[in-house]
């Protein structure tokens, strides 16, 4: 059977013999993604390397990241210490590998907790509308307008420093940013008739929100999530630089940049350079990956 | 339209009130006492009676609800009280530090706009070519690089390069002079931080310009213009850029609002006597009045920027404009 | 005959050489020039020395004021001999050591031309010791021994004490004890918080809030020929990297607090012989305070184990390369005659020369107390040098006896609060004092019911008794014996608190700066009257 177009051109219809790629296996999707978005694939590769480093730190790190070695203080990169040592004699490569773990924990936890809270709040706000929407919007405004560093300073002053409190300090500002974007995407869905129909059928609020509205805002949400991870890692670095983040002797990239970076920048620059490069590469990876994801999911931006 | 404006302006009030409550509560939750820090942080011993005198001087011995009322009432008619740390009026403290922060913010915006819009446009027009990838790499580099790290490295590079080339290492001046008194000295102080901050700002704007341009280029009216035979250059300048600029301007406005608070780390790195550094000092000293005033200032700027953007969109959207 | 000629010849050669070779340390000071220096702090809360406790105030305004007596600027390291600023000589006490009569020099004027008399001196000291209601005197409790202070005539000030003590004279040399004009002080004691009017070597020019403070030479200064400088500029910069870069790039000549070894090396490397360093033991040291109100730190065995685990003798030289610590010492400033000798230290827990033996004992004590796998939180202050470095090192040391510790770092305000409320396990503290006053400086180790600023949460009447005897003891030898008893009780017997490494002060200067001599405290010798520049 063929299809006839105006002008009498014909297109042969597909037959069962034609091999049509209908398989949506994950492998196919991934390879397809790599082919179409080489840049994004590069980003994904960086992220994977970082994740592997973080997960298997005990196996691949040559030294303990916290053992002081006063015989080997501020040594330049050499065969015994590939990236050199810091002022306590600790191996920089090991600290960077273990630091990947800290960065992942902080980055993933804050962005996921912040992102999902923002998702629920944003969709709920769009769904309920009216007064509730107005109140939520005000709360989002207040938290967003509040300077991040000051909120972090306050959280740290009240609860002390440490991984948990850094995560709290970073998560809080992420929630309204996510909620705002999600809400903007969810508003049009709210107006669609089937939501009202679902209410008429007696479905609970929660069910409608979770089953019907949330899946439709997934695309912008996932894109934001990858951006959040990068921003969370940067925020941890900034907080550590101000002395508000993770504390010694926990290995974390931002912390490594804090004391060592400026004091030893002229005499032992490797202490400042390598952690900064690690942060840059990781955030770079997440950002490119997020960009590619957006390009892949958003039909309007695809090349014609 | 006017109903919309009125409603929108009215909604600013609960936001400001919410911020006031938040900062008031947050500051008082932090354990510690500014008087103890003032007298005891030298490490020497001090007299507890002195602490009591200090409390009375700065009004910490008043009941909490009275302190809050004074704060809110003061904000309503522009009286922010005196700084608990230095005893000078809060307005004086802030006014002394505002110029440099404002200057850096404006310079950074100028840097950002002058880089982002042309580069973002070119990147959009040459999508997926090597030019596009280069520009996108530069942009993502700007977002991925910790700005304080960039600042540290740039100071050091300048020191080392000038040391090697001229024999005497050069660093930007560390004392502020206003631009009308000594423009060269002023600009040589501001240029490194402005570029450091502007890079990130430019990066974000570049990406937005690129995606906005891409969206606009797909629009039907652009295809029509092309079909009509108009030259690409005219299409871009007359039709595409104007419409693409709207989300870009929005982003610039919102990012500018964040910029003021976000100068904190930059001012630490370059030792600029600005608002960001004052902010950190105020919170660390637990100077309630100063912190409260600074937060209200930041929140007000943020809220006004958002209001401006919302009103701009409302004016452009015929459904609201002609309602 | 021949040997005499030889001797004369040699003597002549030496004389010629001495005339030709460049003069050594005591060159003639040159006049002129402006000294630009960095002040390592944000702006001080106020400019009133009586009220404040931060060195930011001293570094900013000490050049504008005179004091009654002070540490010897020619030899600030001397902890026992003081010199006069406004007085004519240091008096010996009369009336069984309870009365000190000071003669004030004549011909001194304030910067507005009005004359300074004993009345101004007595009034300023009266405000410090017996502040009016509503007036803040930060160090009031140092002078609880004073019964009265008065000006008996235009050139005489008399201090009467309640009992004789050797701690009074050093406490009078307090660098914060600016002499204010009584005509302003009596009417408005708060005036000095934002304004400056003194009689010191420099006159106030301007103060840009949070930026810099400027002064110019006082031509009517009473120490003839001083000051040598035309003026000074003090620039506030909290961030160490900025200060180091400023000195490196020639924007400032020095700073007066002290830089850690890495920064000093950095400057040495880049400036070479255009740069010099003065070092001194610092009258500041860290101490570790376990909270005796919390289990298991109420058990002396646990506390002692923590002390025994730390290898101070080997840790100090290593840490001194990266942090501004150096000397291993007890509770007394190492440069003072009352301090313990090395042999005396080595008898106390925490100072044993054999660290393996020490750690074995520590493990044994922990086991006996049932705390083999002790885990706790070390509270620390959010300051790099040397607090956080010491904290990191200690955690590593404690891991060697199986104790795991994590660090809780908070800014200064909450740090004080948590200590005062007793909400910590073990805390890293510091004991910093300006003028070396060896007995008074060890007040920190007294139990809380005697000394309010002790945060260890313990009570020990025996210890308080030893201290009291020591305070009233006027014979030096006997006092030293009592000090050893006091120290042993605090550190070894009861392990209440442990002194942990005294700091090293390393002050950087460009080589054209002369005249200033370093002392054991960054609060003293800051009036810049003796500084001169060797113009290039």
Outline the structure in words:
The complex is a heterotrimer of chains A (304), B (323) and C (536). Chain A is an all-alpha fold and 304 residues long. Chain A has helices spanning 26-36, 38-55, 57-60, 92-128, 130-145, 148-159, 163-191, 193-200, 205-216, 218-241, 253-263, 270-297; strands at residues 2-4, 10-12. In chain A, helix 4 packs antiparallel against helix 5, helix 4 (92-128) packs across helix 9 and helix 5 runs antiparallel to helix 7 (163-191). The two termini of chain A are 29 Å apart. The relative contact order of chain A is 0.14. In chain B, helix 2 (12-29) runs antiparallel to helix 13, helix 6 (90-125) packs across helix 9 (183-217) and helix 9 (183-217) packs across helix 11. Chain B is 79% helix and 0% strand. Chain C has 536 residues and is α+β, with helices and mostly antiparallel strands. Chain C has helices spanning 2-20, 55-61, 118-129, 168-172, 182-185, 240-248, 261-271, 300-308, 312-319, 342-345, 355-369, 384-399, 412-421, 438-441, 461-472, 476-493; strands at 34-39, 69-71, 82-84, 99-103, 146-153, 156-161, 202-208, 212-217, 231-236, 254-255, 275-290, 325-327, 375-381, 404-410, 426-432, 498-510, 513-514, 532-533. In chain C, strand 5 and strand 6 form a beta hairpin. In chain C, helix 8 runs antiparallel to helix 11 (355-369) and helix 15 runs antiparallel to helix 16.
């Amino acid at each position: 059977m063929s299809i006839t177009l105006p002008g009498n051109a014909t297109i042969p219809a597909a037959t069962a013999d034609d091999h049509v790629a209908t398989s949506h296996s994950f492998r196919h999707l991934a390879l397809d993604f790599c082919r179409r978005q080489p840049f994004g694939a590069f980003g994904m590769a960086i992220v994977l390397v970082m994740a592997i480093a973080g997960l298997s730190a005990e196996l691949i790190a040559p030294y303990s990241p916290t053992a002081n070695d006063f015989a080997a203080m501020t040594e330049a990169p050499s065969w015994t210490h590939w990236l050199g040592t810091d002022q306590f004699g600790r191996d920089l490569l090991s600290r960077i590998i273990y630091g990947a773990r800290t960065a992942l924990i902080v980055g993933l936890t804050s962005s996921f907790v912040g992102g999902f809270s923002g998702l629920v709040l944003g969709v709920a706000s769009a769904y309920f509308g009216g007064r509730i929407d107005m109140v939520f919007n005000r709360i989002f405004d207040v938290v967003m307008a509040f300077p991040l560093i000051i909120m972090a300073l306050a959280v740290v002053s009240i609860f002390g420093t440490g991984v948990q409190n850094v995560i709290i300090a970073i998560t809080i500002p992420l929630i309204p940013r996510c909620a705002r974007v999600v809400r903007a995407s969810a508003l049009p869905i709210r107006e669609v008739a089937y939501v009202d129909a679902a209410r008429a059928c007696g479905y609970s609020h929660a069910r409608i929100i979770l089953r019907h509205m949330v899946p439709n805002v997934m695309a912008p949400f996932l894109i934001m999530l990858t951006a959040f991870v990068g921003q969370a890692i940067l925020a941890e670095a900034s907080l550590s630089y101000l002395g508000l983040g993770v504390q010694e002797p926990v290995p974390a990239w931002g912390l490594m940049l804090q004391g060592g970076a400026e004091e030893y920048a002229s005499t032992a620059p490797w202490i400042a350079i390598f952690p900064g490069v690690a942060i840059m590469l990781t955030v770079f990876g997440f950002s490119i990956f997020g960009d590619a994801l957006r390009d892949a999911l958003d039909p309007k931006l695809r090349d014609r | 339209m006017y109903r919309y404006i009125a409603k929108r302006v009215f909604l600013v009030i609960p936001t400001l009130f919410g911020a006031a409550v938040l900062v008031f509560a947050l500051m008082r939750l932090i354990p510690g006492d500014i008087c103890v820090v003032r007298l005891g942080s030298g490490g020497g011993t001090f007299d507890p009676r002195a602490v009591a005198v200090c409390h009375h001087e700065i009004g910490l011995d008043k009941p909490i609800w009275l302190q809050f009322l004074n704060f809110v009432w003061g904000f309503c008619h522009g009286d922010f009280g005196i700084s608990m740390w230095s005893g000078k009026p809060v307005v004086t403290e802030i006014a002394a530090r505002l110029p440099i922060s404002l200057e850096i913010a404006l310079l950074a915006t100028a840097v950002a706009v002058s880089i982002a819009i042309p580069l973002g446009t070119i990147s959009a027009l040459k999508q997926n070519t090597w030019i596009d990838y280069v520009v996108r790499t530069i942009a993502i580099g700007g977002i991925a690089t910790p700005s304080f790290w960039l600042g540290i490295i740039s100071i050091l590079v300048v020191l080392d390069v000038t040391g090697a080339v001229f024999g005497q290492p050069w660093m930007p001046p560390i004392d502020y002079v206003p631009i009308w008194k000594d423009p060269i000295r002023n600009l040589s102080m501001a240029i490194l931080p402005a570029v450091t901050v502007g890079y990130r700002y430019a990066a974000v704007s570049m990406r937005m310009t690129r995606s906005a341009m891409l969206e606009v280029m797909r629009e039907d009216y652009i295809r029509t213009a092309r079909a009509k035979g108009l030259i690409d250059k005219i299409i871009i300048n007359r039709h595409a850029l104007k419409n693409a600029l709207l989300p870009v301007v929005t982003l610039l406005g919102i990012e500018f609002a964040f910029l003021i608070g976000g100068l904190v780390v930059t001012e630490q790195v370059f030792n600029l006597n600005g608002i960001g550094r004052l902010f950190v000092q105020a919170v660390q000293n637990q100077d309630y009045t100063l912190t409260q005033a600074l937060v209200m200032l930041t929140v007000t700027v943020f809220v006004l920027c958002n209001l401006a953007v919302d009103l701009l969109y409302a004016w452009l959207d015929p459904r609201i404009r002609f309602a | 005959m021949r040997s005499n000629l030889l001797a004369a010849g040699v003597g002549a050669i030496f004389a010629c050489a001495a005339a030709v070779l460049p003069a050594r340390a005591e060159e003639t000071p040159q006049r002129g020039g402006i000294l630009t220096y960095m002040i390592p702090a944000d702006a001080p809360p106020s400019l009133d020395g009586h009220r404040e406790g931060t060195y930011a105030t001293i570094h900013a305004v000490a050049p504008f004021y005179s004091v009654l007596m002070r540490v010897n600027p020619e030899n600030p390291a001397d902890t026992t001999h003081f010199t006069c600023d406004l007085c004519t000589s240091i008096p010996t006490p009369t009336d069984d050591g309870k009365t000190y009569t000071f003669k004030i020099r004549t011909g001194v004027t304030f910067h507005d031309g009005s004359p300074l008399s004993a009345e101004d001196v007595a009034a300023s000291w009266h405000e410090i010791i017996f502040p009016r209601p509503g007036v803040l005197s930060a160090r009031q409790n140092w002078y609880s021994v004073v019964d009265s202070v008065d000006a008996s005539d235009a050139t005489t000030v008399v201090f009467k004490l309640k009992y004789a003590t050797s701690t009074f004279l050093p406490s009078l040399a307090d660098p914060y004890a600016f002499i204010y004009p009584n005509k302003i002080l009596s009417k408005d004691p708060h005036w000095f918080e934002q304004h400056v009017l003194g009689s010191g070597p420099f006159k106030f020019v301007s103060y840009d809030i949070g930026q810099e403070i400027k002064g110019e030479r006082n031509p009517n200064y009473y120490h003839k020929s001083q000051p040598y400088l035309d003026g000074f500029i003090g620039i506030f910069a909290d961030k160490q990297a900025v200060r180091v870069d400023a000195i490196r790039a020639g924007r400032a000549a020095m700073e007066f607090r002290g830089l850690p070894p890495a920064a000093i090396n950095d400057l040495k490397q880049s400036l070479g012989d255009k740069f010099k360093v003065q070092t001194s033991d610092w009258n500041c040291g860290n101490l570790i305070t376990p909270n005796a109100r919390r289990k298991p730190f109420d058990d002396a065995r646990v506390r002692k184990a923590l002390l025994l685990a730390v290898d101070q003798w080997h840790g100090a030289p290593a840490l001194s390369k990266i942090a501004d610590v150096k000397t291993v010492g007890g509770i007394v400033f190492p440069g003072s005659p009352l301090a313990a000798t090395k042999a005396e230290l080595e008898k106390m827990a925490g100072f044993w020369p054999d660290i393996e033996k020490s750690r074995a004992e520590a493990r044994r004590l922990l086991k006996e107390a049932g705390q083999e796998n002790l885990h706790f939180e070390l509270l620390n202050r959010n300051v790099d040098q040397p607090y956080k470095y010491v904290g990191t090192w200690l955690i590593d040391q404690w891991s060697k006896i199986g104790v795991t510790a994590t660090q809780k770092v908070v800014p200064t305000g909450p740090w004080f609060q948590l200590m005062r409320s007793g909400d910590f396990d073990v805390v890293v503290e510091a004991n910093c004092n300006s003028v070396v006053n060896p007995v008074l400086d060890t007040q920190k180790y007294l139990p809380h019911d005697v000394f309010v600023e002790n945060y260890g949460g313990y009570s020990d009447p025996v210890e308080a008794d030893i201290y009291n005897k020591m305070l009233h003891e006027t014979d030096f030898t006997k006092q030293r014996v009592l000090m050893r008893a006091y120290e042993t009780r605090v550190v070894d017997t009861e392990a209440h608190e442990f002194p942990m490494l005294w700091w090293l002060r390393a002050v950087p200067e460009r080589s054209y700066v002369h005249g200033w001599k370093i002392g054991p405290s960054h609060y003293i010798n800051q009036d810049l009257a003796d500084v001169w520049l060797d113009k290039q």
